Amino acid sequence: MENPPSILVTPMAPAMSAQFTRITFSNLFVRRAGPGSTELTVEGRPSDQLGRRNLTDSPVFDGRGPDASLVARVQGVATQMGNVRKLDLGDAEYVKEVSGTYGAFEGATTLTSFRIVTSTARAWGPWGIESGTRFCITAPIGSSIVGFYGRATTRLVAAIGVYLRQL
Questions:
Q1: Its domain of life (predicted)?
Q2: Model-level pTM?
Q3: More confident of the two residues 109 and 63
Q4: Where in the chain is the domain with CATH 2.100.10.30?
Q5: Other beta carbons less than 10 A from residue 79's beta carbon
Q6: Distance CA 158, CA 6 (A)
Q7: What is the pLDDT of residues 8-51, one digit of tens each?
Q8: Where does residue 50 fall: left (phi above 0), alpha (psi -120 to 50 degrees), or beta otherwise?
Q9: N or C, where is the chain less crowded by C-beta within 10 Å?
Q10: CA nearest to 142, candidates 121, 164, 114, 110
Q11: Looking at the domain 95-166, which fold is it?
């Protein structure tokens, strides 16, 4: 992609650059409720076609107990629009590839289509309009795609990346 995605970590210690760096986190706990947490869902208006927005501002601690230290904050906005699709994977099935297209839309480079392929060659999508430059992200042998991260314009997805897990 023209502008590859990067991970932005808001540390509670000295600043660190996480762009194009693999960071492994373990034993971190996000408190989505309680002191210092805010989660808000805003229903969209039919006129703006942006669906439901979920706003998050939650603390991340290095443990579960009262002696845990605050190490970061999860902050962001997620937009749910269009029709929700549920993908039911088989017991030994996993996501092995995501692909699609990206191109110019309303003056910005955005994701224009998206497709998911599993280890059993089942495919979902494409969603969107297949136009622009093609991309494909395939999990290395011995791993699977378990999540996504991305970057957005004020309305649309501008970049996407994947989280991997060893099988």
A1: Eukaryota
A2: 0.53
A3: 109
A4: 95-166
A5: 16
A6: 12
A7: 433 344 444 444 444 455 565 565 556 656 666 666 555 544 55
A8: alpha
A9: C
A10: 164
A11: Vitelline Membrane Outer Layer Protein I, subunit A (2.100.10)
